[in-house]
Amino acid sequence: MTRQRTQHVHFLGIGGAGLSPLAQIHLAGGGAVSGSDAEDSPRVATLRARGVPVRVGPATGPGALATELAGVDVVVASSALADDHPEIVAARELGLPVRRRSEWLPELTAGYRLVAVAGSHGKSTTSAMLALVLRAAGLDPTAVIGAEVSQLGGNALTGAGDVFVLESDEYGGAFAGLTPTLAIITNVEWEHPDIFPDEAAVRAAFTAFAGRIRPGGHLVACGDDPGVSAVLAALRADPSWSAGVTVTDYGFGAGRHWRAVDVVPAADDDTTRARVLRAGEEVGSLVLAVPGHHSVLNALAALAVATELGVEPAQALGTLATYTGAARRFEFVGYWQPSVRPPAEILPAGVSPAAVPLTATAVDGTPLPVTSAAADPDGVHSLEIIDDYAHHPTEIRLTLAAARSRAGDRDVWAVLQPHTYSRFAAMLDGFAAAFTDADRVYVTDVYAARETDDLGLHPSDLVSRITAPPAHYVPWSTLIDRLTTDVHTALDDPASVPPAPRVPPSSGPVDGSPAAPESSGRGATRGVLLLTLGAGTITTVGPRLLASLGIPLPA
User: Are the beta carbons of 45 and 28 closer than 8 angstroms?
Assistant: First the structure.
């Protein structure tokens, strides 16, 4: 059921994760689209390739803005822009209606069977899994996802079916105007202290969201999560809540309607396997190529909703097995290996091991480059870099658990860029307790995003609270140099790179001091899995580190 859209919509912040998929969907429905953004990006390039005019950078003046907005019917503005932003002010002075994303979503989704995927964590993965399953089953959904998903061609699907899968964010009341037919709540936790003063306020927002499910609709919720349980209790205690809404729970606990049992993560691999029960009866096996128990929960939610929409469980499970992940969700960045040299005793007299290059071959005799994981299948001398969006203590803890499983005997190094001062201050103790699965932690400067007040805190305040593993504050400006040095110290030939002094965990440096090759006690470093964590510019660290180690950045 292709939507015929006739309005000309101008998007302010069109390259953002929130607005770019909305622009694509409006364009696919026949509407006219234009927009502006502060900087170029792949999303802007995609829109331009589809014929959308996008201005990057500030407008040259009021006259230029008036010309740009000529013929526009409505302006949709990113929540990141203040009400006094020059382009918002100009649009209003021209008499144009200006709407925030949250105000535009109800109109965009009107007439669909809306599936709203909400929760403090796991929304993007659950939405992506569900969209993939529904597309494979022939439902041809429209979807908006908060991350790039290569299997879906980006962060939006523009289908002709009557199902709309929408990642629904609580931030700024973005899900406040939605009236979904089906809703998912993955978990409920205090995530945005700049918006919600406490846990109770977050739970109240999710309770109100669930209360807007259409009569006869369906709520799928994780019964294992304490916050979700509180929301369900509040709904059931409210006599005004529609008795026509069906509630289905999922999780690992006994009695869940959809339940995963015998969950087995494969050692040194991302694959996870489980048996799936529905109402106590086994319906099949879940095999995931993405790591972590949290991924199993996300898959259960997608499976429950897909089944409600008519997809056979076996077909849904088969599609879930093909899911390869979303951008910045435990995403592989790259691999590096120093030259592995033979022992000195087997070399001719006077030849240093450092002068002998790596010679590695595949099992069929094909020469391998030093950057190939096949040259070092056990990761003994290698660096592997994984990037993840985790910026909340719970997300960090779960992501590190998945990294620990994947790493095997290798060390796990966590590099955190805290995101926003308000979250950093409110959850400081939670962050300090989140790194138990790491062997080493680096904390760099806070990514302030929309905030300007540092609340009197510094990253070293977190470092001083982490009792184990060893933790270090490293300024953003010197982070790549520090990591490069530490990687070489840990992985290069010991004969050519002498070890640096070990720093006791209780007195780890907090000022970007010299490299410290300590570990948590698993013995000599057998390789390193380095995990970059955060929602800001930390995602650039992996490629920049590889470039510093001699692997060119992609063109």
Answer: no
Give how far the C-alpha of residue 486 lies from the chain's centroid of Cα atoms, to the nearest Å: 27
Q: Which distant-in-sequence residues (6+ apart) come within 8 Å of 419 by Cβ?
A: 391, 446, 447, 449, 534, 535, 536
Q: How far is CA 66 from CA 79, 94, 414, 473, in A?
A: 22, 8, 48, 48
Q: What is the pTM of this model?
A: 0.79
Please give the structure tokens belonging to residue 5. Answer: 């859209």
Task: State the pLDDT confidence band at 344, using cuts at 50, 70 and 90.
Answer: low
Token couple for 33: 């689209």
pLDDT in tens, 110-126: 889 999 999 999 999 99
Q: How far apart are CA 216 and CA 235, in angstroms?
A: 15
Q: What angle do CA 518, 520, 521 make, to 5 degrees?
A: 100
The label of the residue with tokens 């062997």 reads 439
Q: How far apart are CA 515 and CA 362, in angstroms?
A: 34
Alpha carbon distance 277, 261 (integer Å): 8
Q: Which residue in the block uniquely carries the two structure tokens 């993405």?
A: 290
Rounded average pLDDT over 76-80: 87
Amino acid, res. 492: D
Give 360's pLDDT tier (boundaries 50, 70, 90).
very low
In DSSP terms, 260 is beta-bridged to 276
